[in-house]
Write a structure and sequence with these properties.
The complex is a heterodimer of chains A (315) and B (281).
Chain A (H helix, E strand, L loop, with lengths): L5 E3 H15 L3 E5 L3 H4 L2 H6 L4 E3 L4 H13 L3 E7 H7 L1 H9 L5 E6 L17 H6 L5 E3 L4 H10 L7 E4 L4 E3 L14 E4 L4 E5 L3 H14 L4 E5 L2 E3 L3 H11 L2 E8 L4 H12 L4 E6 L9 H7 L4 H14 L2
Parallel strand pairs in A: 2-3, 2-4, 4-5, 5-7, 6-7, 10-11, 10-13, 13-14
Antiparallel strand pairs in A: 1-8, 6-12, 9-11
Chain B lengths: L2 H25 L5 H4 L2 H11 L14 E4 L5 H11 L38 H15 L6 E6 L6 H12 L5 E7 L2 E2 L2 E2 H4 L5 H7 L3 E6 L3 H13 L5 E6 L22 H19 L2
Parallel strand pairs in B: 1-2, 2-3, 3-7, 6-7
Antiparallel strand pairs in B: 4-5
Helix pairs in contact in B: 1-3, 1-4, 1-10, 3-4, 5-6
The chains are: A alpha/beta (315), B alpha/beta (281).
Chain lengths: 315, 281
């Protein structure tokens, strides 16, 4: 475990784009008038000739990305999750997903932690939307270390990639030795009573929850599930067999996101109680991000409570 | 245009129309009306204009065509088959579950299809992306796209038009198939995008209005587009929906309906006569 460095995953995204751009001359970055916020402005400053601002027109941006990809370019395109996955859903589905084009979507400002902008901008539906598109890869990094590695890995993935980044600076979970593998979950903590499967900024909170549980004599395993699609079914099966109870944790609606994916997987392979920590099928609201995370139950305390309930539900 | 080329293109247009009827008749569904009326445009692009190679459909410096009005797939498939990208006999497999000729174009299964389309407005944006790719390479290749006059009611079309005008994608040429009809009626009855030419001009496009069935006018307009160094070009092509099949011409009802056996015979007879006439030119 590293020190208390706090960095927003969007910052790591912007930096990693510059790093990639330096070794790939056929890399192009598109944005929709949010370059400063999504941090693609870093790439724009480094490689102005390979940055194209598409203006406030996300649907067209996705199509432009597709056209560039057909001509052999490595394409990243960015907007807020609400617009990249929400507004442009059908463009992503039909013009990237159906032709299975190698376009990388860097969606920032995902989830409740957008903060003061409030419900219109707090996208808690994007994982659900993207998951239903065949052949889509979805990566939701936990910290800046993982975000960088995900960006570096994305161009090598066959087909479209949806990467989900946050606005809020979050504590570092990994150190420089961390190895990221697309499609693989990883145990951050071993345990015997319950497994917490977390993604994004909830990973660090899951580790806090495991500490609290440990103090209370409960042995909780923690899995980091950065890749939500394709889902690592093997690690889930292993966790279900070893601990017999699962709690998922994500900054997303409890419908259709990581919790939904895990429940679908285990109900068909090894049914055990699966309790979900996430946004309880409601819209967000304005406020300081850290306060909102507590208000919406996206914290260690709620994970602890759900973990105990999951253990109680075991036969 | 010289007489020999015009004869060749007229023959190919008739063959494309035959392919449309063969496909939609065998599929018992599909969109004949808006397929028949772009036969001349496709004939010109595939048989006189575009740098393409049926033996190397993905060659990097090829010119591209994005059929943004993807429901006119039967015409695109017929043009590609006639041009040698795949066997003409396969046109009869249109829309069958095991056929690569899906109801709307799929770039991963059909040789020569440059973009999967079907959801209106989206192909146009992809064509803009291809044109941007060409511009990055010194306008190495040209990009053509065909839009329907109903399709341009989609908001995304104007996002794309603004983008192409702003980014000066001069290697991009968009045809608007201006047949005046959409599913629910005439474009005036539904939600008119008129004046079409003025709208594209306002989005910083070079605009040329032509008779979409006149090869001389198509050639002239395409050549004018190629001489542009700043603006993308929109060719507003006045067409007759259902052209070449008498009972389909100018009829809203033949937008998305296949001919029955009797109608098929009549259509094929009429198109055989058209082909014979073209061969006698």
């Amino acid at each position: 475990m590293a020190d208390a460095v706090k960095t927003a995953t969007r910052d790591a995204y912007g930096k990693a784009l510059v790093e990639l751009g330096g070794r790939n001359e056929k890399m192009v970055v598109l944005d929709a008038d949010l370059a400063a916020a999504t941090r693609t402005s870093k790439f724009k400053a480094a490689y102005p000739d390979r940055f194209v601002d598409c203006g406030i027109a996300e649907e067209n941006m996705i199509g432009v990305a597709a056209g560039l990809a057909t001509a052999g370019y490595t394409v990243f395109c960015s907007s807020f999750a609400m617009f990249a996955a929400g507004r442009a859903f059908e463009q992503v589905r039909n013009t990237l997903g159906y032709p299975h084009l190698n376009v990388n979507i860097g969606a920032t400002h995902a989830g409740i932690s957008v903060g003061e902008d409030g419900a219109s901008h707090q996208c808690c539906e994007d994982i659900a939307l993207m998951r239903t598109i065949p052949g889509m890869t979805i990566i939701n990094p936990a910290d800046d270390i993982e975000a960088r590695l995900a960006v570096l890995a994305a161009p090598e993935i066959d087909g479209p990639v949806y990467m989900r980044f946050g606005r809020l600076a979050v504590p570092r979970v990994f150190d420089e030795t961390y190895k990221f593998e697309v499609g693989k979950g990883s145990y951050l903590r071993q345990g015997t009573d319950v497994t917490i499967v977390a993604t994004g900024l909830l990973v660090e909170r899951a580790l806090q929850a495991a500490d609290i549980l440990s103090d209370e004599g409960v042995s909780a395993a923690v899995i980091n599930m950065a890749t939500i699609k394709p889902l690592d079914k093997e690690i889930l099966l292993d966790a279900a067999k070893k601990t017999g109870a699962i709690v998922t944790a994500e900054e997303h609606n409890v419908i259709g996101g990581l919790g939904g994916a895990v429940a679908e997987c285990l109900s068909e392979t090894y049914p055990v109680p699966v309790l979900r920590v996430g946004v309880e099928d409601r819209f967000g609201k304005s406020g300081p991000a850290l306060e909102l995370l507590d208000i919406f139950g996206l914290n260690a305390q709620n994970i602890v409570e759900k973990a105990k309930k999951a253990i109680d539900l075991k036969k | 245009m010289n007489a020999e080329l015009k004869k060749k293109l007229t023959i190919e247009a008739a063959k494309i129309r035959q392919g449309v009827i063969v496909g939609t008749y065998n599929a018992k569904s599909g969109h004949p009306g808006g397929s028949l009326d772009i036969a001349e445009i496709l004939s010109y692009l595939y048989f006189a204009e575009m740098n393409i190679d049926p033996k190397d459909p993905k060659k990097a410096d090829r010119d591209r065509l994005v059929l943004s009005k993807g429901h006119a797939a039967p015409a695109l498939y017929a043009a590609l088959a006639e041009r040698g990208f795949f066997p003409v006999e396969d046109l009869a497999t249109l829309r069958k579950p095991d056929s690569y000729l899906q109801g709307h174009p799929n770039m991963n299964t059909v040789p020569g299809v440059d973009m999967s389309t079907g959801s209106l407005g989206q192909g146009f944006s992809a064509a803009c992306g291809m044109a941007l790719a060409s511009k990055f390479q010194g306008n190495k290749f040209r990009v053509y796209t065909i839009l329907g006059d109903g399709e341009i009611e989609e908001g995304q079309v104007w996002e794309a038009a603004m983008f192409a005008g702003d980014k000066k994608l001069s290697c991009l040429t968009a045809f608007v198939d201006y047949n005046g009809l959409q599913i629910d009626g005439t474009i005036g009855e539904v939600n008119s995008a008129e004046p079409i030419a003025d709208k594209f001009k306002a989005f910083n496009w070079n605009v040329i209005e032509i008779d979409g069935a006149d090869f001389d006018e198509i050639e002239k307009a395409v050549n004018k587009a190629k001489s542009e160094t700043e603006k993308p070009t929109c060719i507003v092509a006045k067409t007759l929906k259902g052209k070449g099949v008498s009972y389909m011409e100018g009829s809203v009802g033949w937008h998305g309906k296949a001919p029955n056996a009797e109608e098929y015979k009549q259509a094929m007879d009429e198109l055989a006569a058209e082909l014979k006439e073209a061969e006698a030119m």
